[in-house]
Design a protein that fits this description.
Blueprint (H helix, E strand, L loop, with lengths): L16 H7 L4 H4 L3 E5 L6 H7 L3 E6 L6 H19 L14 H21 L4 E3 L12 E7 L11 H14 E8 L12 H8 L5 E6 L10 E6 L1
Parallel strand pairs: 1-2, 1-4, 2-3, 4-5
Antiparallel strand pairs: 5-7, 6-7
């Protein structure tokens, strides 16, 4: 593997609803009538679209500490910043879906605008929170989704952070947690995955790994399902 994507600041950027359905193998029946948490959600548009499809979805992220209009300005700057960095490591990605950096920017911008619009109309869906401590009741959600935080930054976030964060997601979730991906920023399987499975298995019904249809970062095509 070559150099990893380096982002020298915390960026407010997100994925589209369509990306989430691929990353997490989501069907409409997984959404309808369900309480769903997206954490950490960033500028993803999942919550906006899931609610339109009959879910009661909420987003939680440390970025929501800031006013929506501040995030609206920051997000556009962060997209530009990230796209510049992407050009340096483009060979580490599969461009079948996005075609090129221009196509990626278009999708990231679409997710961002959908998220910001929903934040303006339904601010109560977007709550400030920071793992491993979340502002939710025990077993509040049927399903929790978490993308591109745990495992991704295993060079910055230590094992105890991962363990405590997953225990917190288990606390607030009733039925299932889905995590994507199991790879770090170098595209390698995180060194924490197997130990976490061993430590958490006594507290849950099952932990499974599934290959998903989503392809972007090379080596990152596996989702973890924690069945509660």
């Amino acid at each position: 593997m070559g150099a990893m994507l380096e982002i020298d600041r915390i960026v407010f950027i997100g994925r589209t609803f369509q990306e989430y359905t691929s990353m997490f193998n989501l069907k409409r029946t997984d959404l309808q009538g369900k309480m769903i948490l997206d954490c950490a959600s960033g500028a993803c548009s999942f919550t906006a679209h899931a609610n339109k499809l009959g879910a009661t979805a909420m987003a939680c992220d440390m970025a929501y500490e800031f006013d929506t209009e501040i995030l609206a300005k920051k997000g556009l700057e962060d997209i530009d910043h990230t796209m510049e960095k992407m050009r340096d490591v483009a060979e580490q990605y599969d461009w079948t879906y996005f075609q090129d950096v221009k196509g990626l920017k278009k999708e990231r911008t679409k997710a961002f605008y959908d998220c910001i619009q929903d934040m303006r109309i339904h601010p109560y869906r977007y709550l400030y929170g920071k793992l491993p401590h979340l502002p939710f009741e025990d077993k509040q959600f049927d399903l929790t989704l978490s993308a591109h935080l745990l495992f991704t930054y295993d060079d910055r976030l230590d094992y105890q952070f991962h363990l405590q964060s997953l225990k917190e997601l288990i606390r607030v979730t009733k039925s299932e947690i889905r995590l994507f991906s199991l790879s770090n920023r170098s595209g390698k399987r995180s060194r924490f995955v197997d130990q976490l499975k061993e430590d958490l298995l006594p507290e849950v019904r099952a932990i499974e790994e599934q290959e998903v249809s989503y392809k972007f970062q090379r080596g990152a095509q596996t989702m973890m399902r924690i069945i509660l």
